[in-house]
Amino acid sequence: MTPLQREIEERLAAREPDVEVLLAELLGGETLRVFIDHPDGVTLALCERVTTALGELRERYAIEVSSPGIERPLTKPDHFRRFVGRRARVRTRGVPSDIRAAAAPSRRSYTGELVGASDTEITLAADEGLVTIPYAQIRRSNLVEE
User: Fold this and answer.
1) CB atoms within 10 A of CB 83
2) What are the beta bridge partners of residue 91?
3) Domain limits at 87?
């Protein structure tokens, strides 16, 4: 998790405690995109409240707040555990030796069924076989439409 995402979570904890920040990313250094979730769903009114709660950040960035959509980002171990059995795309941070793959271990992107998620790594049933990836090596991950 980035320091910016931590800051956003801290700001929202008091004002919108049921909001989960799924991903906060900077686009071009000028736009801050924040994907949120809520037990009752994400509405336009909730997005507006979150944007208002991030007032100080609006002075530095243009802010886009939205629901995760079909291709929901997966950024935390709990996210991966919640969606075991679903298809996901995982992009890695290069080709480190601690990614274990049945074939083609030099790839940087894997798509397949999420079959396991521990506190330290995920296991994906990709087309080329089982791939085990430590969280530290995941650059970006999201669900894919089935």
Assistant:
1) 15
2) 109, 140
3) 77-143
